[in-house]
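QA checklist item 7 of 12: single-chain prediction sanity check.
[x] sequence parsed
[x] length recorded as 395
[x] structure emitted
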Amino acid sequence: MINQIKQKASDLLPEMQRIRQHIHRFPELSFQEFKTSDFIASELKKLNIPFTKGIAGTGIVAIIEAKNPTKKCLAIRAELDALPITELNEVAYKSQHPGIMHACGHDVHSACLLGLATIMSDLKNEWEGTLKLIFQPGEEMHPGGGSMMIAEGVLENPKVDAILALHVYPHLAAGIVGFRQGQYMASTDEIHITIEGKGGHAALPHQTIDPIAISAQIIVALQQVISRRSNPIIPSVLSFGKIVGGTVNNVIPDKVEISGTLRTMDENWRAEAHQLIKDIVYNTAHSFGAKAAVDIPKGYPSLFNDPKLTAAISGFASEYLGQSNVRELSLRMTADDFAFYSQKIPGCYYRLGTNSNNESKTASVHNAHFDIDENALTTGVGVMSYAAFSYLKAQ
């Protein structure tokens, strides 16, 4: 079966390149993936695979049933959306939508999932159960298409037993995949703080309540949330990337706005940190006579890879590629809304190497020069297909 799937994956490469390059050429932003959704639907129709459109707006769920379809259900997710980045690559499939680019590889993920649909449909007399293919909108934008699709019942009818997802990884060469059991990626929350003081002449600060000086005190104090209040064995990051206040050098403004991000690996600590941030902001502002508002919209949870499932899938990858081509991944403070799925059912989120021999195609994701060695498509669809086949074939 390994050789059979490898041959099918190799034969599919030109088709997957066509699909990937089409999606790459016409990227769409989160929750606006209307033409991308139509394109995916047209490809599923060619394969005679039943599907439902319009889930969470532009999402699609396709179903492949084999023998004994109620025995087990495996879901595999790919994303549809692109990023607000102007592509700087000069390639034939360069983005035709100015200011929008598939800089996170979602075009690759969708192409691999369609490739898997082809292979697993061809082999459906050889495995048992049901495959649920999830083409998800809005991974790059709060509240995350994953949470919305779950709310619309994507994990039910049939009930999903486990879920997989791959993600491009330009820090590994094409032909290599990476896994990590247990905690892998951080939760991510936005932090928005407004400090309202009393503006006035900068030469007369005693007549003002200076929100700039108060904001500086608050930012310094908030660093202690991580350095002095968090458990040092729990990775956490608190960073502020935006401060807006004032217009000229000699006027103290009435208001300052601060924005940042909190990322951590522990859901209990995450909730505690939210309260600590609010307490520090309110108390510090009050002590200087200012008013404060704090908004921490809850973002993606931390991503946990089920150890048993991940061990099984990485084992299948080792059988397919050879142990030397399967690597162990390090913890990451980045986030992905696949975490919503992995908080509900056993999940395995793994990485697909996409660079060319560590010499080219090494630009990071979310970079205007990001691109892949398209030989990675063969590895992506091959490993995914063999893992799905093996999982559904197992008793």
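[x] summary fact logged: Residues 185 and 332 are 5 Å apart (CA to CA).
[ ] second reviewer sign-off
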